[in-house]
Amino acid sequence: MPVMSGLQAAHEIRQMEEGFHLTCTPILFLTGNESAVQIDQAYQAGGDGHLCKPFTSHAA
Length: 60
Known about the structure:
Number of domains: 1
Order of helices and strands: HEHE
Radius of gyration: 13 Å
Number of helices: 2
Number of strands: 2
């Protein structure tokens, strides 16, 4: 993203929701990075889920 990272965007969204007493918007991170640290950072920023590319939508 050109202006801010996905982590920053999620954090900003959560702050706006809290400040305006809005319901939570589901935030899913889609990334090619499977690192546990990166996934943890996504949840700490306010993310609700993490998908690693490439992914399939059907059950295995």
